Structures
1.
Amino acid sequence: MSMPFYVSPEQLMRDRADFARKGIARGRSVAAVQYADGVLFVSENPSQALHKVSEIYDRIAFAAVGRYNEFENLRIAGVRLADLRGYSYDRRDVTGRGLANAYAQTLGTIFSSGGEKPYEVEIFVAEVGDAAADDQIFRLTYDGQVADEHDYAAMGGEAEAVSTHLKEHFTPGLSLEDAVRLAVKALGHTETGDRTIPADDLEVAALDRTRTQPRKFRRLPLAKLEEILGS
């Protein structure tokens, strides 16, 4: 009878983390930028059928990078949880923090389990408040860690280069148009040089507190993007 190979828990976790990071790094980046009237999401996404940025609830949005089938399962689970909580209690009981904590528990459990591979995803959960100071952006990693981001954030393939560009050029109180231009330039900024991303390769959406209806999520159509970017 052969003896099974022994792998230390530390090595196992390192291997699972490396596996997840490599999968995430293969995807294109997503940038989140706070502007005067809400939170903006910009992603390089040539696909017209598969969305990286979506609505979860009235004031809450979801963005992800990595394996589409995995983060789509998480998005659907978040929508169901939000609907159930809002229906059972009150719509005000559905919060971005609550959803981020639920996602953190799910991702942490999957990462720690030896029975299945870790999810190759990173997630933004954002909530827009009545004022800019009340806006929240949570970033969740493949192992269930949660970070509370401020002003701007990036995840995915070139996240470090994108974050560096955002840090150097971000100013509080940006207009929507200026925030879009900043995010698009940041996504085109790489360690080897800058590139121009066509408007039709972009997916842009925002949580806009100025909308009169309860649902604050809206997508920016291609015509609007071309007008903003001058393309």
2.
Amino acid sequence: MGKLDGKVAVITGGTSGMALAGAKLFVDEGAYVFITGRRQDALDDAVKQIGRNVTGVRGDAADLDDLDRLYDTVRREKGSLDVLWASAGGGEPAPLGDITEAQFDTWFGLNARGTLFTVQKALPLFNDGGSILMTGSNASLGAFPGWSVYAGSKAVQQAWARVWLNELKDRRIRVNVLTPGQVATPKQEELFDEATKRQFESLIPRGRMGHPDEIAAAALFLASDDSSYVNGMELVADGGTTAI
């Protein structure tokens, strides 16, 4: 018996890395999963990799019309949902003094505004007793030079989780934040050269980058009844980077 048998889950940004690993694991644990991605080719490839019990919906989490289309698809195909992992996000480095309005608008638009409306628009479909998790970042806990816009756009999630669980307590919907650190993903390969990756690894007490499957396992914990008494918390999975 799987930990998510009979559950319906939505994972935004589910075409690669941690979220794709999570989608595979959720399906293996009995869930039907809807994933989103901005590129149709990547979405098709992810659906193929997952293999069963999955629907891909092309869309951008920063676009409210795309979010409406996502939830219209969930309503039409399944009628309701039990788990939402708001994972779509991104960022780029820019030190104070060089930050542009476009960078601020882009990353707050996706990481903050997009996450808020991803959650809000899901509520009419949510079954009571469900689980919401948002992908944070340990950049919001550390003081990594150049990453203030990204850190700020992720830090709002801890406040939201506490407020929203209080607003949703009558429906017994839990809200938590999953905060990864440095994880070896395709996106990281795009952003960082080898020297930067080695520098990041030097900060990790575990001595290595995390793997997408390790973050997926933490997401499964928050999505399932294994975490039934965990609410409004931030689960940090960063190898101890921000603990020292």
